[in-house]
Structure formats: C-alpha cells, structure tokens
Input
Amino acid sequence: MSLALLRYTIRKNGLLLVIFYAVLAFYLAVMISMYNPEDMAEITGMLDLFPEDLMQAMGFSQQVSDLTGYLASWLYGLLMLAFPMVYCIILSQRLVVRKVDSGSMAYLLATPNSRIRIIVTLGAYALLSVGLLFMLLFGTGVALAEAIHPGQLATKQFLHLNITTMLVNQLVIMIGFFFSCLFNDASRAGGFSAGLPIAFLLLNMLGGVSEDYQWLKRLSPYGWFDPLEQIQGEMPWTVNLVYASGAAVLFGAAIFVFKRRQLPI
Output
C-alpha cells in the first residue's frame, strides 16, 4: 500500500464521505427525535395510510415498540441500504475508471508504485471509507439516543446491526470497484456498478411484498439478513462471513484484472 497515494485519495474523496455522513446523520437524528414510546401506536398507525405491499417492500414494520427495533425497521430496513449504495457506486467509479477515462491514471502508473500497489491502496480506501461511515453513524446514533432517550437504545444490538450493514455495503462497493477495474469506459463500468446493486435492492423490496415472493430476497445480498431479526438475536456470523468473503473475492478479482488489462494511456 502507498501511504502517499492513500493520503491523496482521502483529500480527493473525503468531502464525498462527509456529505453522505451528514445526510445519513441528519436522518438518524430526525428518526431518534421522532421516537416516543408512548406514541408508537400512533406513529406506526401512519403506515395504514399507505398500501400494505409498499410498506412491506420498504421494510417498515408495525411490530416495533422499542427504540432499537424502531431504528432497525424504519431506518436500516431501506434508507441505510439505499443511500450508502449511492455512495458506493459514486466512489467506486471515482477511484479507478474515471482516472483511466480522464488519463490521470497514467500519472499514477508513472510513479515508482506498481499496478498492484496502486489498486490495493485504492481498494483499501474504498473498504475503509465504508467502515468509517458506519463507525461514525454508530457513534452518532448512540450519542443522540443517550442524549434524547437515555438508556433506551440496546447498544450491543445496534452495534451488531451497523456491523452487518457495513459489510453489506463493503460487498456493494467491491462490486463497483471490480467493474471499475475491469472496464476502460466509465459509462460501461458505471452501468454494471450501478445496475447490479440497484437490481439487488429491487429484488429485496419485491421479496418483501408477500410470502409468495420471498424467494426473490434470497437472490439479493440485501435480503440475506433481516434487521429486525438481527436485533432480537446474536450476531449473524455466517451471513457476515459471507459478506466479508464476497468482498474479499471481488477485491482479489479486481487486482487480478487490473494488473493484466490493457489501459488506454
């Protein structure tokens, strides 16, 4: 890994991370401030105003009364998957294929760093930035919950929820990173990097509409864990291992294809 390249990548992409963290932290603050255990029946009753299939597809549940379950259903059921997915798509393209497309990758390859060292550094930043995003969101959520609703957030379960959601998004960013390394054309790489995660998210949503379509969720990485079920049990080690292994395999594949491909520079 090149520390100089890592510092440069942080400077170039740090603002993007700050923007997405600020947006997600704002939604987290709003959701926590809206929570009132005495009014949960009224809050969940608002779901009756919308079609039941739509609410199930979005992961919203009326069967929650505590703060942790409320956040798992209303925030981590969809928003904490969809918004970070956009971040992963944008960042994965900025790290490699846009550099190739613009010609700036030629300057990196002209340095004493090898292709492997360059791509490992860029991929490591992708994974670390997603990890940092969810670490900040976990800390923000705990701090806000303690300030507004002391003692009502199950910190251990909330940590488990953030770890698994982080691993899901690390898998997603490695999907985009792989295609960013595979193609020279930014539009083609972007099509696959955005198309696959969006398709996975839609499959997860369609699978939540009814029991007849549950099998669709199993086709999507987003559907391999249920936020509500997770906070009611132990850490889903098997699912987490699958996410981590998938991200590692895609990272290795990205290094392999980038090392051997012909670059238009």
